[in-house]
Specification:
Number of helices: 6
Radius of gyration: 16 Å
Number of domains: 1
Structural class: alpha/beta
Shape: globular
Order of helices and strands: EHEHEHEHHHE
Distance between the termini: 15 Å
């Protein structure tokens, strides 16, 4: 099964990629659609490409393609980005995401850095800004955080106590993608 990762940036993609590979997907089963820098805001890129990716899922064999959307909530309220994604489907004349569809959302509040901060330091709030300022997440913390989260997902373990709500929700969303990936070659990833 191919998984297309639609996300805001390369750090987001690497985080999602690590989780997918650790949970059994082969590299050649993972494609990406990442916002190019400088053309439009990253979250706008994800919103603008979401409907087309959903349509691609629905046009193909549903069990052969999954869509994994990673978009920061920024300062949106709980469920705000998910509502924006739903509105994009409606505007495109598409029905809403269905319960059985392999379309998963990871929506870190405020940013992916919130999750990285929690996974590397065992504390975080969804109100603090870990992208800038005194609590800024360092570049070297992303991969250890992704590795830790990937192991939790692979082992279907509980998150440590104090996990931020958006990280807990991400565990449930990841289950929408799960299927026993076939074993095989490890070819390089490709861009869609």
């Amino acid at each position: 099964m191919q998984v297309v990762v639609l996300c805001e940036g390369f750090k987001d993609y690497r985080f999602a990629y690590k989780c997918l590979v650790t949970c059994g997907w082969r590299r050649d089963q993972i494609a990406f659609n990442i916002s190019p820098s400088g053309k439009e805001s990253a979250f706008t890129y994800v919103l603008n490409h979401y409907s087309a990716e959903v349509q691609a899922n629905r046009n193909g064999k549903k069990k052969e393609r999954a869509l994994f959307v990673l978009i920061d909530a920024d300062k949106q309220p709980e469920g705000g980005r998910e509502n924006e994604l739903a509105k994009r489907l409606d505007a495109a004349g598409l029905k809403p995401r269905q319960a059985g569809e392999r379309i998963a959302f990871w929506v870190p509040r405020r940013h992916l850095e919130t999750w990285v901060h929690f996974l590397t330091r065992a504390e975080a709030t969804e109100q603090a800004d870990y992208k800038d300022g005194p609590h800024r997440v360092k570049e070297r913390e992303y991969m250890p955080a992704a590795e830790r989260f990937a192991k939790i997902l692979k082992g279907r373990q509980s998150l440590p106590s104090g996990a931020v709500p958006s990280l807990k929700k991400a565990v449930a969303e990841f289950d929408r993608l799960r299927r026993v990936p076939s074993k095989g070659s490890k070819r390089t990833m490709r861009k869609r």
